[in-house]
């Protein structure tokens, strides 16, 4: 079952045809899961970047 379905009549090459447009759109729970996943990924990227910056800072402090 599609979550979106639209039926149109169009003239194509001089003939009247019925065009059916069907699409699956994500549910609210699917959108929520996607947002939660993206948020977790962003947090992990920020943590890795902070660790990398800390290592560079520590290395620079040791050098001089």
Automatic annotation (TrEMBL):
Taxonomic superkingdom: Bacteria
Protein name, as recorded: Uncharacterized protein
Organism of derivation: Clostridium felsineum
């Amino acid at each position: 079952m599609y979550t979106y379905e639209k039926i149109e009549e169009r003239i194509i090459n001089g003939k009247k045809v019925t065009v059916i447009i069907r699409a699956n759109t994500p549910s609210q729970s699917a959108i929520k899961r996607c947002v939660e996943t993206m948020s977790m990924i962003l947090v992990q990227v920020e943590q890795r970047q902070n660790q990398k910056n800390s290592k560079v800072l520590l290395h620079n402090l040791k050098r001089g």
